[in-house]
Specification:
It is built from six helices and two strands. Helix content is 63%, strand content 6%.
């Protein structure tokens, strides 16, 4: 698969496509790893989301340039799109609050960041 700069027509990269067997193997491995991941504490599972957010905010400039080259959008628009990752902040704050008050019986099994109605109004 060729990635082309739409403004100049230059080839930015040539990427290999995954065949059906490679995709099926990846799905099998992810499904196999999911139970162990689900057993990890909430704080551990949220750490990669926080890290992703921090890296995007830290590297906005080069990421925006990449978006501009790959899809041809103006740099200001690319930066605006990347700024959307700030929306992860409320999720992080909610997770911090849940961790601070502790996960009690009011949290349904399997929920990630859902607060019981009583906690939301408190």
């Amino acid at each position: 698969m060729r990635i082309v700069d739409p403004a100049r027509g230059d080839t930015l990269a040539d990427m290999r496509k995954a065949d059906a067997a490679t995709v099926a193997d990846a799905v099998r491995r992810v499904r196999g790893a999911q139970p162990a991941w689900a057993a990890e504490p909430l704080e551990t599972r949220c750490a990669p989301i926080r890290r992703f957010r921090a890296l995007v905010l830290q590297r906005t400039e080069p990421l925006a340039r990449t978006l501009t080259h790959e899809v041809g959008k103006p740099i200001v628009q690319a930066k605006g799109e990347l700024a959307g990752v700030r929306g992860v902040a409320p999720l992080s704050a909610e997770v911090d609050r849940i961790l601070a008050i502790g996960l009690g019986s009011g949290y349904p099994a399997g929920s990630l960041c859902s607060l019981p109605e009583a906690d939301i109004q408190a």
